[in-house]
Amino acid sequence: MLKVNQVLFAYQNKATLQNIQFSVKKGSHTCIIGESGCGKSTLLKAVYGLLDLEEGSIYWNNEQVLGPAFNLVPGHPKMKYLAQEDHLMPYTTVSENIQKYLSRQYSEKSKQRTEELLEVIDMLHFAKTKVKNLSGGQKQRVALAQVLAREPELLLLDEPFNFIDNFRKNKLRRNIFNYLKKQKITCLFATHDSTDMLGFADQALVMKNGELIANNTPEQLYNLPPNQYIASLFKEVNVLKAELFEELTKEGIVLLYPSELKIHEEGKLTVKVKKCYFNGDHYFVETICKNNQLLYVNSKEELPTSSSIKISYPEDLLEKRLVQN
User: Where in the numbering of this chain does the ABC transporter domain appear (predicted)?
Assistant: First the structure.
């Protein structure tokens, strides 16, 4: 188990991690999500042992993780950390880059493991290709295979799919996280993409300005976001004043995703269409409410600009999604 206790870290007299505390169960996958510059990468470096903490402590399986001041070679031996930058051997093949971290005493087993990892990263056809001839996204996938070859107890990933082509991301996510579950490898990964979190994380840590502001399951945070910032990490969100809804007597704002609203002739809200955006299987419609608030809704068809439409909303969610400004 990973335990992070009241960690404080400052960089050039600016606190980049403030009183961070959480734990991660063995074999589980935990996501750190938040806007750029919130401290995600710094937290991963602290967990790996690349930083000397100002205050607090970090333990992996009851063994304290110490920083560079206590280690000639920083980095906990039972963990592997893959940053956004990779360290590959450009003039050797993809297979050779992976085999570098496998046992040379058992050549047949090493060959099987290499093929298995090439399949995980979807690069069997590039086994004999030199790394220097790969794209940035392909190099990132090889770097992923390298850290998996080392069989860490805890894998730390920093934006692992950042440079991967969109059409490959979903399959690669499934391959990587299924492999980690199969091997019972604990994973802590940082991302700004909610898709990484929603389908593959058991636990989600939300960071803002160096602070941990939420720690829950992705489902709980999505269904009951405690504030606008957290809701906006998942997708576009409507931030509507409570006064718009006749069912509510309290003040505040209501957070509703566009997909939760419906265009219906008996809807209680009347809005005017401002702009439609084609999104493949639907149109994303920007509208204006009577109090000049923007409201977003999905539509199966393109709607005329300036036309009036009626919107229905899930009344049972209003109280649950009512938060303070």
Answer: 2-234
Residue partners of 296: CB distance under 8 A and separation at least 6: 236, 238, 258, 261, 284, 285, 286, 287
User: Which ranges in the chain are annotated with CATH 3.40.50.300?
Assistant: 2-224
Sheet holding 283-288, edge to edge: 262-263, 308-312, 269-278, 283-288, 294-299
Specify whether the CB–CB gap between 229 and 208 falls below 8 A. Answer: yes
C-beta separation of 43 from 33 below 8 A: no
CATH 2.40.50.140 boundaries in the chain: 235-323
Helix, strand, or coil (residue 295): strand
The torsion defined by the Cα of 89, 95, 99 and 105, in degrees rounded to 10, comes to -140
DSSP 3-state of 109: helix
pLDDT in tens, 168-178: 888 999 999 99
- Top-tier CATH class for 2-224: alpha beta
210-266: per-residue pLDDT in tens? 999 999 999 999 999 999 999 999 999 999 999 999 999 999 999 999 999 999 999
Residue that is written with structure tokens 């991967």 in the block: 164
pTM beyond 0.85: the answer is yes
Six token digits for residue 185: 């490898």
